Amino acid sequence: MDVITPAERSALMSRIQGKNTKPEILVRSMAHSLGYRFRLHRRDLPGTPDIVFPRLGKVILVHGCFWHQHRGCKYAYKPKSNALFWEKKFTGNRERDNRDTRALRKLGWSVFTVWECETKNVGKLLSRLDAFLKR
Question: What is the per-residue pLDDT across 100-116, written as a single tens digit (0 to 9) for each?
Answer without folding.
Answer: 999 999 999 999 999 99
